[in-house]
Design brief:
The model has no long low-confidence stretch (mean pLDDT 95). This protein is an alpha+beta fold and 102 residues long.
Amino acid sequence: MEVKINTLTPELFLELYGSVGWEPPERAQIEAALQNTLVSLTAYDGGNPVGMLRVLGDGGMSFYIKDFAVLPSHQSKGVGSFLIDTAESCIRGMLSEGWAVS
């Protein structure tokens, strides 16, 4: 399994978002959301997208996980944990030493 950073497209978003039963927003809304995302992560298994996660925030003190979805066929297989761990690493990489976040 691998995670790619900032490669989440509106098409992938729609596929993964809808896979968990959520009613997807309109494409224009997704495009705006992705443009304003600090970091997006897409998990791949064998080259196939199986999960996503977006990080929102101010880049200094506050970071929020949003649109965290894993294909039902890949849930309970460590995909979500892998995405969370990668998100945490990305956030830590944005911070100066000694900074705390919420």
